[in-house]
Design brief:
Elements lengths: L5 E2 L11 H6 L4 E6 L6 E8 L5 E8 L9 E2 L20 E4 L2 E5 L6 E5 L8 E3 L6 E8 L5 E8 L8 E8 L18 E4 L4 E7 L5 E7 L10 E9 L5 E11 L9 E6 L5 E5 L6 E5 L5 E3 L21 E3 L6 E8 L2 E8 L5 E4 L6 E9 L5 E9 L2 E9 L4 E4 L6 H4 L8 E8 L10 E9 L6 E2 L8 E5 L13 H7 L4 E6 L8 H4 L9 H15 L8 E6 L1 H12 L6 E5 L5 H7 L7 H5 L7 H7 L12 E6 L8 H13 L3 E6 L9 H19 L22
Helix pairs in contact: 5-6
Length: 703
Amino acid sequence: MAINTNTAPYGSWKSPITANAVASGSSSVGMARVDQANPTRVYWIESRPQEGGRLVLLSKDVDDYSERTLRELTADSKWNVRTAVHEYGGGAYAVYGGLVVFSNWSDQGVYLVDTNKHDAVPMRIGEQNDKLRYASFVVHPSKKFVVCVREDHRESDIQASAALVAIPIPSGSVINERDEYPPSKDMVLFDKADFVSSPAISPMNNELSFYAWNHPDMNWDATTLYCATMTLGDDGIPSVLEHLRVVAGAPGELRESIYQPRFDDDGILHFISDRSGFWNPYYLGADGEIHQSLESPISADFAGPEWAFGESTLQPVPGLKFSVVISYTQNGMLKMGILNVATHAIEDLPAPGWSEVGSFQLGYSHSGEQVLILIAGGPTERMSLFTYYINGLSAKQHTGSKSVSDAYSGFLSEPQEIVFPTKLPPFDSPESKDANAYAYYYPPTNKDYQGPDNELPPLLVLSHGGPTSAASSVLQSKIQYWTSRGIAVADVNYGGSTGYGREYRERLYPHFGEVDVQDCCAAALYLADSGLVDRKRLSIMGGSAGGFTTLACLAFRPEVFAVGASLYGISDLEVLAKETHKFEAEYPVHLVGPYPEARAEYIRRSPLYSVDTLACPAIFLQGLEDKVVPPNQATLMVNALKEKGIRVAHIEFEGEQHGFRKSENIVRALEAQLYFFSQILGFETADQIDPVPIFNDPSTANQ
């Protein structure tokens, strides 16, 4: 025990990781891109919570680790490089030869800026209709057009049509008298599916590849990979696709989820598919056949679910024949390497303390050395932008705090991956089978404090959103906020999570609200039975689909948890089935069953209709502009709990969508949860927090 360690109740420890520190640390980097016409230059997106959560486009030289060559390309606050396609966005810009095309949040318009000119101002191009949304851009090497995904809301939101389109890139000579580009017509290249994504253009010719899928599937269920030839007109703009053909995933054949089509220098098409049960790399050979890139498939995922556009964990290596950079996690360890698809040999690339990587791009330093640009993070460092020198097997950091582990030395809890026993449905039947599930356990950690000898810490179970998603072991200050105050955390990868193959991912089909609930409860009870946490002070929190799991745990397993927090969570599955946006409109078909045929099952699993069994206090936090989970979901549940006499709190945030982006709202949401939990679990916080109105609490003045 350290000499200056204080003994204090768990939950009441004083921590330097304040809510304000969490909010300021909520700035994130994403979607790195190397300009392939100028491969010494890297571009990326940075979120700015202190600026209302807007996304800013930045650029610098790949081998500049200072701010000497740094440029903020969308400095004016009117620019927010973000798209609303699928509501989750991603893929909001592309660059080639210094020309940047991006989507702006306020009007969803497509804008062009020539970054070769330091005083250039973004100007709108394309059809210039605010009912059209765009994403997944790729600039043709001729710089005459950009290919992208278009989502058309002119006639309907819930039935918005998707298409792959070509948008002409105008020259400066066509600017009108208002110093603007006049509207131009989008050239529709493909519109034969409910959804389309990830266009890629071959450097050898005008070959185009992309993938598409249809309701009721999500893209992690089944997609179809296409190739076609763009036929260019006299103006150099394509108006039609010729020789359209299915490469893999033909409807009616093997159901496989195909991601990340990529052409290499020789025009060979590489992609990722889970046809083996795990997302592994494949390629289309010169013989027209699909070939395994690995010698044989392995039980590891080389990609994750594509909720957003622009994911990149597979990238051909220019100048290195038949070679791609890959990453995967196996036995809890992240592995990176250069895979030669002809020999199946993998040259390992050490991952220095990282547990998650993405945004793979290849470029060159000014000395001519080939580099891998990526965004990476680990248990003691947030996701940051790096230049990785492949030959020297070393990485240098561009962005993010380099001293998080130093600044909070002694206050950071490192995750321990646990495997715990659970059950498979039907749970109340002799047919139920034993199984394992996974979680990251974070013990309370604070160098200045220890808990009393006769006390165990409270536990906060986190149920991630999606639900087809995964918990991450990368440093998250929102988790450290709790652990540094003496509250243990378990971030659960319940059945249905990604990273463990298709079979594990589909455990949730059609058992949403059952398998996830079982696994979250099993994780909490396992840790309590192991003597690590206080059985009487188990809590749970989740956002979106994780909010539903939280509420379902409270409603259907009231004996497990003492309190819960739902952030923009679902309380009525039937309302979600009827009111959500197009991307997820038929997701519930897999998660629960076809609606309205399975309406009784939707009602049975909805926490809103089971408040009679719910005896646990809960706090609800909701953005009022949420298009994914309508705000009335929280209101309905709060009203039901108020009528029942259960302690409940409800905070709504103006101007927030699905998730909180504004710094002040991140602070308020986090502090409100801590305050509410302290009132229910019986500890005093060391923080000065504005009280939260709690309904049905006789100790407050609001009753």
